[in-house]
Amino acid sequence: MAETQPDANGQTVDGASEYFRNTQRPKQLSKHEALAKEFIQYHVETNPDRRIAIVTSGGTTVPLEKQTVRFIDNFSAGTRGATSAEYFLQADYAVIFLHRQFSLLPYSRHYSHSTNCFLDFMDEADDGGVIVADEFQAKMRRVLQQYQHAKKNRLLLLLPFTTVTEYLYALRSLATLTKPLGPRTLFYLAAAVSDFFIPADRLEEHKIQSRETADGKGSGKKLIIDLDPVPKFLKTLVQQWAPKGSMVVSFKLETDPELLVSKAEESLSRYQHDCVIGNLLTTRKWEVVFITRDRGEKWIRVPKARRSKSFSGVENMVGLADHKKEPEQIDLEGGTVTEGMEIETLIIPELKRMHDDVIARQERH
Ligand code: PAZ
Questions:
Q1: pLDDT at 342 over 80
Q2: pLDDT for the residue numbered 13
Q3: Whether the Cβ atoms of residue 194 and residue 230 lie closer than 8 Å to each other
Q4: What percent of the chain has pLDDT over 70?
Q5: Mean predicted lDDT score pLDDT of the chain
Q6: Which family does it belong to (predicted)?
């Protein structure tokens, strides 16, 4: 589906509008809208200066059946989004965390089931109870305090999605609901959203059968999947949905260092938003590039000595996508919660400075 295309009468149809016309409204959307509305209203009424970051996180699924057994998914665990949400909260933002269900969440991510199983942090106490092991006490207290602060002050709203359709409906609603905040809204679009989907009218109702031969011999038929492109929602978000003067930051993921900067630049010039943060799959925990209209290409890197270990990362690829070949020196202040320095501790303060400028510019007008 193109961004805009002529309909039967030759009128231009916006791809996003057509997508919503042809795609059923998700069941949980009204509940999520009510929660978001209440959250936004609370912050508008209690603190007129409060900024809200809408942080999107994790991958979207593309169902192959209406009664979904099989779906297409992607790699994203939601580390970027969950970590960033914590640093936005630390920077005094309220956060609406639009995340893939069961992906990593702010704060609990430190004790997630896969890499940091919470049981590994526990010990049996002499009195028959269960305690946090001595070596983890300090960190767990810090994480717990931050979590409780966010909870007590109603600073964090968690909204889950699973499919690409649920994601897009929720994003549109959130953008519309944040209108009263105007420039104090910041969209931080870190979710890995599918570029392809199967339109509802071509979706099987029931589980796709493997079609084995009647005698049970022989292999099943090939499954050929015909996917349509998801319309370019970033354009619609920037031009129609988002509050006037709000700040929009998108992410661009690539695997080829040769392409990263040019693809990120292309995205910025196409959608005319505030910033594209480019990252490579293999180095995303250690370096990102900010592409903005006035400042061009700006790299942010975790210094070598403070890089966390990563199984999937390839450290000798750091610097390969840098067009300028002159990495900027960065201020190394900032807290770390897990081992090594999290690059989000550098990304979020930089964005907050940019957001200050956006708000100041709006106020001058
Ligand atoms: O979830 P994660 O921390 O494993 O990965 C984060 C990311 C690479 C999905 C994110 O930084 C990103 O680039 N999101 C946008 C992807 C894209 O649509 O190009």
A1: yes
A2: 56
A3: yes
A4: 90
A5: 91
A6: Belongs to the PPC synthetase family.
Q: Say if residue 85 is exposed, middle or buried (CB neighbours under 10 Å; 0-12, 13-18, 19+).
A: buried
| Ligand 1 atom at minimum distance from 285 CA | 3
| 253 Cα nearest atom in ligand 1 | 19
Q: How many CB atoms lie within 10 A of CB 135?
A: 9
Measured from CB, residues less than 6 Å from any atom of ligand 1 are 76-80, 190, 192-193, 251-253, 279, 284
Residue type for 326, please? E
Q: Which of 124, 102, 122, 99 is nearest to 114 (CA)?
A: 102
Nearest to residue 97, comparing CAs of 85, 88, 89? 85
Strand partners, 39: none
Atom 6 of ligand 1, nearest CA residue: 80
Q: From the CA of 342, how far away is ligand 1's center (Å)? A: 15
Instruction: Please tell me the distance from the alpha carbon of residue 319 to that of residue 264, in angstroms, as a whole number.
Output: 16
Distance CA 54, CA 273 (A): 15
**Strands (DSSP E) along 175-274, which ranges?**
185-189, 196-197, 228-229, 247-254
* For the chain, domain boundaries: 13-112+143-206+224-244, 250-364
Burial class (CB in 10 A: 0-12, 13-18, 19+), 360: exposed
State the distance from the centre of ligand 1 to the C-alpha of 235, rounded, in angstroms.
Answer: 19
Cα–ligand 1 centroid distance for 350 (angstroms) = 18
Taken as a whole, the chain contains a residue count of 365
CA distances from 289 to 86, 321, 328 (A): 21, 9, 11
CA 303 vs CA 161, 314, 323: distances in Å: 35, 15, 19
Sorted by sequence, the CB contacts under 8 Å of residue 328 that are 6+ apart come out as: 298, 299, 300
Pairwise pLDDT comparison (216 vs 54), residue with the higher score: 54
Supply the CATH classification number for the domain 13-112+143-206+224-244: 3.40.50.10300
Give residue-wise pLDDT tens across range 206-242. 999 987 555 555 566 789 999 999 999 999 999 999 9
Residue 8 has pLDDT above 80, yes or no: no
333 is written with which tokens?
A: 């202040």
Mutate to test the pocket of ligand 1, among 84, 189, 237, 253 (most ligand atoms within 8 A of CB): 253
